[in-house]
Specification:
Elements: H1 3-11, H2 13-24, H3 27-43, H4 54-72, H5 79-90, E1 94-96, H6 98-105, H7 108-116, H8 120-131, H9 136-143, H10 147-165, E2 168-170, H11 180-191, H12 197-209, H13 213-234, H14 238-257
Antiparallel strand pairs: 1-2
C-alpha cells in the first residue's frame, strides 16, 4: 500500500465520518464504520476504476456496511414512518407549522433524532443529497439502484423528515390550481430547479393561494438548508482522523509482518 493512497483515504475521513454519524446517530459506531470502510477500500483498491469520485466510492462501501450491520443487529424497520408520511402528504387538509419545523431542524439534536426516525435507505438518500451535496445519479450509484428509484427515495425521505419534525393541523381549502398532493409531490423537484417553466408557474400559483402547502414548502426549504449546515458539525475532528490513521497504519504493519 502506497503512502499516497493512505493519505488520500485519510483525507476523506472527516466527511465520511459525517455521513456515518448522520445515518447512525452514534459517534463511536460512525468512527468504527468509517475505519472499516477505509480498510475495505484498501483490500479492494484494485476494484476502484476512477469512474466516480473517491468519496462516492467510499460512501458506497460504507452504505453496504451499515446495511449489513443493521441486519446483524436486527434493527426494527421503520416503514410505518413512510406509510404515515405518505398518508399525511396525500391529505389536502394536512399542513405543518413551518416556524416549529424549521426551529426544530435548526436544533442539531432534534434534526438528528428526526433523521433517525426515517428508514435507512431514505435517511441515506437525504443525507447524501442535502447534507453531502451529492447528485441523484451519484446517490443511485452508491445505493446500487436506478436513477428513478434514487429520486423517489430523496423525495419521500424529505417528506418523511418534515413529517417527523412537524405538528399536524387541519385547515379549510379553497379552489386551487393543483391538487395539494400533486403540488407537494413536485416541491422536491422545484427546490432542485428541475421543473419545466409551465409546471413551475402552476406550482407557484398554487403556493400563492393554498392555505396548507406554503408552510410545507417553507419547511422543506428550511430543513434542506439545515442539513447542509449540519455537515460541518458532523465531520470527524482531527483527533478522530489521527486515531483512524494510526489504526490503519497498524493494520498495514501487521500484514507486512505476517
Amino acid at each position: 500500500m502506497s503512502s499516497d493512497l493512505l493519505d488520500q483515504l485519510v483525507a476523506e475521513l472527516p466527511r465520511l465520518g459525517a455521513y456515518a454519524w448522520s445515518v447512525t446517530g452514534d459517534r463511536h459506531r460512525a468512527e468504527d464504520l468509517a475505519q472499516e470502510t477505509l480498510a475495505r477500500a484498501l483490500e479492494r483498491r484494485e476494484t476502484y476504476r476512477h469512474e466516480a469520485p473517491l468519496g462516492a466510492w467510499l460512501r458506497g462501501i460504507l452504505h453496504n456496511l451499515a446495511i449489513d450491520q443493521g441486519r446483524r443487529q436486527r434493527e426494527t424497520p421503520r416503514e410505518d414512518v413512510a406509510a404515515l408520511a405518505d398518508a399525511a402528504w396525500r391529505d389536502d387538509s394536512w399542513t405543518v407549522d413551518a416556524a416549529v419545523v424549521i426551529e426544530r431542524a435548526e436544533a442539531a439534536d432534534e434534526l438528528r433524532d428526526a433523521l433517525l426516525a426515517l428508514p435507512f435507505i431514505y435517511r441515506s438518500a437525504v443525507v447524501l443529497h442535502d447534507m453531502e451535496g451529492l447528485t441523484v445519479p451519484v446517490i443511485a450509484s452508491i445505493q446500487s439502484i436506478s436513477l428513478a428509484a434514487a429520486k423517489q427515495r430523496l423525495r419521500r425521505g424529505r417528506m418523511m423528515l418534515v413529517t417527523a419534525l412537524a405538528e399536524l393541523k387541519s385547515r379549510a381549502l379553497d379552489q386551487l390550481p393543483l391538487r395539494c398532493w400533486d403540488a407537494r409531490s413536485q416541491v422536491s423537484d422545484y427546490i432542485d430547479n428541475e421543473l419545466s417553466a409551465t409546471k413551475r408557474q402552476r406550482l407557484e400559483a398554487h403556493l400563492a393561494r393554498c392555505p396548507t402547502c406554503p408552510p410545507i414548502y417553507a419547511s422543506l426549504v428550511g430543513v434542506t438548508a439545515a442539513l447542509g449546515a449540519l455537515a460541518d458539525e458532523a465531520a470527524l475532528g482531527p483527533i478522530q482522523v489521527q486515531r483512524v490513521r494510526e489504526a490503519l497504519q497498524r493494520r498495514r504493519e501487521d500484514r507486512a509482518d505476517a
